[in-house]
């Protein structure tokens, strides 16, 4: 690969935004009109014409996992020891939690407006706010943040234990464990052992990075390749993890082969864009816009599911349907997301002077 670029890659901002919108379309395609819920019954859907995005749009999550592996490797590469681990943990907390808390509050209000009992909702909101590995959550996308948090924990422990972080070795170990699991899941699926396949598809196997570890590993190896050429051995591992990532996408979209192929093509295109963004300074003339889109992607991801679903239901209850309903619902999600971006910047600005002096030798600094 080309020499290491500047630490901020504007092409990744756009990729984040596109990945978030893919997930939005995937979920909006399944929202029901009679209840604030998702439905596979196409006759009950609010926007059944978005059905082509079902499954294919969900690929945005796997794109996020690759980006996360890349970005976390980039931010952790020079950290070591207790001070480095603390700096890493605080950076992740200030990056992830403020938007999560704000969006959780918005989701709570949205469901209360739909007539839900606040008591159980508060318990779900609390589990979401602390990224509990045990659901249910107030928002259906929080599971992926729990998976991300476990990946952060893995990297944080590695920073604590090694004086020089062996990112390539961590990526290989994570990718091999995930590849072995996916191979077993593939075998169970192909041989008709549906009970075993259903067991392996349960949430604990996702939490322990067995389902999606290959995607984090790919991102980490791509970062490693920016600083030094990949050895034939690392190229082999990168190829293996890519194949297993495609297999995971195929498994997620069964029994629909067209959707599986579509998901794999979308993910492959995203990986091509990732590599192009690393090699060339894309959108360097519009850094402000790209940063804003990148910042907006996370709140959109957090607010489109429960808040979007509730908005669709309330609009249909008010007699608004069809394209006007879709435009208004997306507008509500967009406004909520912009509000979260602006509010979380204030929250971060207040948190930084309080928490960064606690890190030995570290001045207050932003967490990206």
From TrEMBL:
Keywords: Acyltransferase, Membrane, Transferase, Transmembrane, Transmembrane helix. GO terms for biological process: polysaccharide biosynthetic process. One of its GO terms (molecular function) is acyltransferase activity, transferring groups other than amino-acyl groups. It holds the Pfam family Acyl_transf_3. InterPro entries: Acyl_transf_3_dom (IPR002656), Acyltransferase_3 (IPR050879). The keyword Acyltransferase applies. The keyword Coiled coil does not apply. The chain crosses the membrane at residues 12-33, 53-77, 98-121, 141-163, 170-191, 203-222, 234-252, 258-276, 296-316, 322-343. Residues 9-336 form the Acyltransferase domain. GO terms for cellular component: membrane. PANTHER family: ACETYLTRANSFERASE, ACYL_TRANSF_3 DOMAIN-CONTAINING PROTEIN. This is Acyltransferase. It comes from Aliigemmobacter aestuarii.
């Amino acid at each position: 690969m080309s020499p290491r670029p500047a630490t901020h890659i504007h092409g990744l901002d756009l990729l984040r935004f596109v990945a978030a919108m893919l997930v939005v379309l995937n979920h909006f395609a399944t929202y029901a009109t009679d209840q604030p819920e998702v439905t596979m019954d196409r006759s009950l859907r609010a926007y059944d014409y978005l059905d082509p995005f079902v499954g294919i749009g969900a690929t945005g999550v796997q794109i996020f996992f690759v980006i996360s592996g890349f970005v976390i490797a980039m931010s952790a590469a020079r950290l070591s020891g207790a001070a480095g681990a603390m700096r890493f943990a605080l950076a992740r907390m200030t990056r992830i939690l403020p938007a999560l808390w704000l969006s959780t509050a918005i989701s709570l209000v949205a469901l209360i407006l739909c007539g839900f009992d606040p008591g159980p909702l508060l318990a779900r909101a609390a589990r979401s706010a602390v990224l509990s590995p045990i659901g249910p959550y107030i928002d259906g996308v929080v599971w992926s943040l729990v998976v991300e948090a476990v990946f952060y924990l893995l990297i944080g422990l590695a920073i604590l234990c090694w004086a020089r972080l062996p990112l390539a070795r961590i990526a290989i170990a994570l990718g091999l464990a995930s590849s072995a699991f996916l191979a077993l899941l593939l075998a169970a699926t192909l041989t008709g052992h549906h009970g075993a396949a259903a067991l392996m598809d349960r949430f604990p196997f996702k939490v322990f990075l067995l389902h999606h570890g290959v995607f984090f590993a790919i991102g980490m190896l791509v970062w490693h390749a920016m600083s030094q050429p990949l050895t034939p051995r690392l190229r082999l591992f990168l190829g293996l993890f890519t194949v297993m990532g495609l297999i995971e996408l195929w498994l997620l979209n069964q029994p629909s082969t067209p959707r599986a192929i579509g998901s794999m093509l979308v993910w492959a295109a995203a990986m091509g864009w990732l590599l192009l963004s690393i090699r060339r300074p894309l959108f360097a003339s519009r850094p402000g816009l790209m940063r804003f889109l990148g910042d907006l992607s996370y709140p959109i991801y957090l607010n489109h599911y429960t808040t979007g679903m509730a908005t669709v239901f309330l609009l249909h209850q008010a007699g608004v349907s069809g394209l006007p309903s879709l435009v208004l619902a997306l507008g509500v999600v967009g406004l909520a997301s912009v509000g979260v971006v602006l509010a979380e910047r204030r929250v971060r600005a207040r948190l930084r002077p309080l928490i960064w002096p606690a890190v030995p030798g570290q001045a207050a600094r932003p967490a990206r």
